[in-house]
Design goal:
The structure holds three protein chains of three kinds.
Chain A lengths: L3 H15 L1 H4 L2 H26 L7 H18 L4 H23 L4 H19 L11 E2 L6 H23 L2 H11 L1 H6 L4 H27 L1 E2 L1 H4 L2 H14 L6 H19 L3 H16 L3 H12 L2 H10 L2
Antiparallel strand pairs in A: 1-2
Chain B lengths: L1 H31 L6 H19 L3 H22 L9 H23 L14 E4 L2 E4 H23 L1 H11 L1 H6 L4 H26 L7 H15 L6 H20 L4 H15 L10
Antiparallel strand pairs in B: 1-2
Helix pairs in contact in B: 1-5, 1-8, 1-9, 1-10, 2-3, 2-4, 2-8, 2-9, 3-8, 5-6, 5-8, 6-8, 9-10, 9-11, 10-11
Chain C lengths: L5 E12 L2 E12 L3 E5 L6 H9 L6 E6 L2 E2 L5 H7 L1 E3 L12 H11 L8 H15 L14 H14 L4 E5 L7 H16 L3 E5 L3 H7 L2 E6 L2 E7 H6 L1 H8 L4
Parallel strand pairs in C: 3-8, 3-9, 6-7, 7-8
Antiparallel strand pairs in C: 1-2, 1-4, 4-5, 9-10
Helix pairs in contact in C: 3-4, 3-5, 4-5
Classes of the chains: A mainly alpha, B mainly alpha, C alpha/beta.
Chain lengths: 316, 287, 246
Amino acid sequence: MKTKAGIVVCAIVVAVLAALPWYGNSVMVQFGISVLLLATLAQGWNIIGGYTGYASFGNSVFYGLGAYGVAIAMVQLKLPFWVGMLLGLGLAVVFAALLGLAVLRLRGHYFAIATLGLAFIMTAIVSNLEIAGRNIGLVLPLLKSDLLFYELALALLVLATLTVFWLSRSRFGLGLIAIRENEEGAAVMGVNTTLYKVLAFMLSAAFSGLAGGIYAYYITFIDPVGVFDVALNVKMIIMAVFGGPGSVLGPVVGAFVLSTISEVLATKVTSFASMFFGVVIVIAVVFMPRGLADFAERFRRLRLRYFAENVRAHRL
Amino acid sequence: MSLLAQVLVSGVLLGGLYALMALGLALVWGVLNIVNLSHGALIMLGAYVTYFLFTGAHIDPFVALPITAVVLFVVGYVIERGILNYVIRGPMFNTLLITFGIEVVLTYLAQLAFSADFRAINPSYAGSNFALAGVTIPLVQVAVFAVAIGLTIAMWLFLLHTRIGRGIRASAQNLVAARLYGVDPKRIYALTFGIGAALAGVTGGLYGTVSQINPYIGGPLTAKSFAIAIIGGLDNPLGVIAGGLVLGLVEALTALYFGSTYRDVASFGVLLLVLILRPKGLLGRTT
Amino acid sequence: MSASPNILDVRNATKRFHGLVAVRDVSFHLGRGEILGLIGPNGAGKTTLVGMVNGTLAPTSGDILFDGASVRSLPAFRRAHLGIGRTFQVMKPFPGMSVLENASIGALFGAKGGERNLRKAREQARESLQFVGLGRRIGQRADALGGPDRKRLELAKALAMQPRLLLLDEVMAGLNHVEIEEVIEDIRKVRERGISILVIEHVMKAITSLADRTFVLHHGEKIVEGPTDEVLRDPRVVEAYLGKKR
C-alpha cells in the first residue's frame, strides 16, 4: 500500500536521480542509462508476467522492434528521432497484438517457450531483411549527449512505474490480477480475459519498445544479435522476480540492486561478474523465491526463519 | 533430384541426433516437472569431456561415450541432489530460473577452463564417406545416427521393462503412491536427472564429431531441444524421435530452398505452429 | 427483454467428450423467481449440464435460452454480463487476493459489464460479503480461509455480480447442520430479491426446503421431473441413488 509518505519519498528519489549528471561522473551516467533501461524492461515485463501471470520470454522482441523502428526511421527514411520512436512504438504494439492473439491462449511454460521461440525467429527474420541492414546492422547518426539519453531513460522509467501504479488500483489491473490468480474464475465472473491479456501484452510491449528506441539512438549501432538478445529476456525477468513481481516498485529495486552489485563486482573481480548472475539466481530462488518485496514484508516478522520456511516449503 | 535426396538423407541423419538431444530434456520434464534451461550446458560439457578424452587419452570418441555418460551422470546427480531438490516442490517457474542460473555458471566455468576457442573432434575416419544410390553419406554421421537412435530406443525399453525404469515412470505419475510402493523419491529424482544429464553428455560427444564446440553452444541447443520435445509431444517417449526427424528434415529442406540463414526461422516457426495448432505435440495424446 | 415466462430454457442439451456422452438430450426450464432443484447420483452429469448454461462448456448439440434469447455461442464472460452467475463445486477463488477483492471482481465485471467505479464496486462487494456472514474477514487473504468460509466466499462472489440467474453447484457440501440452515435461509433471501435459482444438491434438506420443482439426472439423462416432494418419493429416483431392489 503506497501511502502519501511513500509517494513523497519516491519523488525525492526521482529528483536525486535526475540530478545525477551534475554531481556524478560520465561513467556513472552511462551506467545509469543502462540500469534505467533495464529497469524499464523489468517493469514492462511486470505488467504481463507479474500482474497477469503470463511469463513472457520474448519481450526482447519488442525491445528490438523499438530499436529498429528508430534506426530504420532515422537511417533509411531520414526522419527525426521522435518519429522513429513512434514507429518503434507502433511496431512493438502491433506485433504484440498479433502475436498475443496467437500465443496468449497457451498456458504456463508453453507460453514461455512460445515467446522464447518468437525471440529466436525475430532475430533470424531481421537478419535477412534488407531495410534493416541484414545481419550487418544499422549505424545511426551520432548524438553526443548522454545527458539527454539519461533524462529520457529516467522519464520513461517513471512513466512505466506510474503506469504500473495506476494498474495496481484500477479496474483493469484488478482484472489482470484475477486472471493471474484463477483465469477460469475470472472469465465466469465477467472478465474478458482474451482482451485483457492482449492489452496487457501490448502495454508491456510499448514500454519495451520505447526503451529499445532510446537504446538504439544512444548506442548508435544496432544489429539483430545485439538487440534481440535472448539473454536480455532472462535478465529482465530475474530483476523483476528478484525485486518482487506483481508489486509496483519491486522490478525497479531489483534492477537497481542486481545491476549495482554486478557492476561493483565487475570492477573488483573482473571475470567473476558474469558468473555472478547465475549464483545470485540460484541462491535467491532457493531462499527467497517470492522476491525482495515479499522478503521486506515478512522478514520483520520471521527473521531468519523466513529463509528456512521457504526452503522447507519447496524442498523434496 | 539427387540433391534433394542428399538433403533428405542429411536431414534424417541430423534428426537422429536431435532426437537423442531432446530425450534427456523430455525425460526430466516429464518425470520431475523440471524445465531444465541448463540442458544445453550439459551437452556442451559432454562435448568437452569427449574432446579431451580424444585429444588427451587418444580414446576414440565413440568408445569414450560411456565414460562421458558416467561423468555427466555424476554431474547431473549432484546438481539435482544438491540444488534442484530444494526448489522442486515450488512453482515450476522457479525451476526455470534456477536452471538458468546453473546454465550461466556452467557456461562461465567452461569458458574459464577451456577458453572460447572453437574445437572439433576429428577421428581418423572423419572424412570418409560412402555412396548409396547416388547419395554421399559421411560415415561419422551414420555412426552418430545409429548410436542416437539406438540409445533412444534402449532408453524407452529401459523405462518400460526394468525395475528402476518403472519406478521412474511411477514417480512421474503419482509420487505419493510410488512412495507407498517403496520408491525413494530423493534417489529416483536424482537418478532421473542424472540419466538426463548422461544423455545430454552423450549427445554432446556425438555433436562434437559433426560440428564445432565452444562454451556457448548450450543456449541454442536448449531451445532446439524444447522445440523437438514439444513438437514430438511430451506424453509419448518415442515422440522425441518424431520431433527430431521433423526438425532435422525441416532444417535441411529450408537450407536447400531458402538458404541456411532461415534455418532457425523454420525450426521455431514449426514450434510455434505446433504450439498454436496442436499443443500436445504430433504424437501427444489428445485428451 | 422478451415476454417469455422462463428466465432459462434448456432444449435438448447434449455434451459429448470424445467417446463418452456426459449429458444426453436434456431439456428443462426455470421460471422467473423460481427455485429449481437438480439432483442425481455422482457422475450423473449435473455439473456438466450447468457448465453448458454458464458457458464453461460448449454444448455438442441443443440450445440454451436465457431470457428468450439463445446464448449457446456466447463465451462465459458475456453470459456473466447478461446476468448468469454460478458457484463451483471445485471452488475458484483468487487465492492471493483478499476476500474483499475476490468479491469485488464480481461487482466490477458482473451484470451489465459491472461497476466501473472502484469505490461503488467495493461497497457492493462488502454488502454481499456481509450477507453471507464474511463481514469480519474482508481483509484476509482468500487462501487463509477455512472450508465453510470458502463456500461462503464462493457464494458472495456470485452474488456480488448481481445476477438474475444463480446456479448453485453443491454449496452445502461439507457444511454442518447449523451452517446448512444458515445457507438455506440465505438462499431464500436471495430469491426474495427476485433472483431465479438452480440448486444442485446432495443435501436433501436443502432441496425440500427450497425447491418448488426438482428434476433428476441419471447417467446424463433426465429421468424424473415435477414438484419436489413427488419427485423425491418416485421409485425411479430411489433406484437411481440406491440401485435396484433385490
